[in-house]
Predict the 3D structure of the following.
Amino acid sequence: MRLSLSTLDRLPAAVARPDHDRFSLDSGIVHLGIGAFHRGHQAVMTDRLLGRDPRWGIVGVSLRSTDTRDALVPQDGLYTVSAVDGSGAERRVIGAHTAFMVTPEDPAAVPRRLADPKVRIVSSTVTEKGYSHDPATGALNEDDPDVRHDLGDLDRPRSTVGTLVSGLKLRRAAGLKPFTVLACDNLPANGRTLRGLVLRFAELVDRDLAAWIRDEVRFPSTMVDRIVPATTDADRDAVAAAIGLEDAWPIVTEPFCQWVIEDTFTLDRPAWEESGAEFVADVAPYELMKLRLLNGTHSTLAYLGYLTGRATVSEAMEEAGLARLVEEMMFTEIGPTLPALPGFDLDGYRRSLLARYRNPALKHRTWQIAMDGSQKLPQRLLGTIRDRLAAGQPIDRLALGVAAWMRYVTGIDESGAAIDVRDPLAGRLRAIADAAGLDAARLAPALVAVREVFGDDLPADPRFTTAVEAALGRILALGARGAIERTLTEARS
Ligand code: CS2
């Protein structure tokens, strides 16, 4: 028997369930990208409010695949969120979604939905690569095939940016006020970055529309944080056993959940503060702290963990040298680059990150986090490196993180087995690696020359190129484990 509205009352008492009537919900939010992160984060925080304020049901849009819609429609949109740690699991059935749409099935339908007057917020979790931007500069990639398509056929958009502009165009034509655009991905200044992309795209199609967007639409930046690994079949089995019903796509996550949002909305907004979100005037210091301390060390753990044969983050943390390396990276190298946040317990935050990584109940694959490194490195490691170089400080541990990415994208691991490298630039990175061979003096400069990742400045800075080449040389000569140990003994603070 499957989870659905008609089986909800069979759930064990310990499983929390929606306290709202799904049929009384309005759809005030359209969300682009209904992957695990959205379903374990924003949807949960919204679900908690719907009993009191039913205006904020979520229309979930998949820009590409039908999987989520196919899994959730037979369940009336319901799914289980298990928050797990060493002491057990807390489960809750979420029913925040009122409808599901899949862009390729009817590309004109999504912008039309965005032009529904009841829709006041359009949010997004489309991953870093979903913004069709140049990761090093944040500028719109006008050669992106989806962007090119959308510039020619804006009524049937495929890209995130094209979809937003198409929806805004329809609202303007209908004399409606625009919605708020709420970016929820791990990009630096995510709202400001998305605003820049939307404005650039709009200028290319219609200058008046661009001016209207510039004047009327708010793009609050947000800092989002919850570790939500991809769901596995073992998760499905465990959830089914616990709730007594089949659930085709449950979410398994950690108890921790944080959302910091700039309180600047075009129209109204849900009272997300009642489910624990923090509204602030400027999210930048929170975002920088999270991207650098969490995501920067997460990626480092992913590459070095994968190379040392560790399949998950908690297993990577059992690699004693690696755990020490990321701890030192947080305290010694990243910490001094962060702006002060008065009243914020930075030490407690760093310690809690290390504890979260050790969560033994989460099976967060190093391979999953290693994905799309070309899109992630700039905001996770390279910004910190730039700040340290500008302050004349050493970057030994951070350089090892970058070098581990370089070793990873060669596509062959230390035992000679193939690595399934997933990255929009995977083909190019592999070709570079094949041409250079496993020779740090050739491979490091060839990869550092990838401008989309390293920009124009870092390839020209010998302090950077030397440090990365030395770190890669260590990995190639000593293996990842040996390179970690050597870095621990020799790194300067
Ligand atoms: C991870 C993030 O997959 C990744 O790249 O670093 O998704 C991470 O789990 C979240 O940002 C935590 O908030």
Residues 186, 225-227, 294-295, 298, 368-369, 376 surround D-mannonic acid (CB under 6 Å). Residues 410 and 440 are 12 Å apart (CA to CA). The longest strand covers residues 79-85. Residues 462-490 form the longest helix (29 residues).
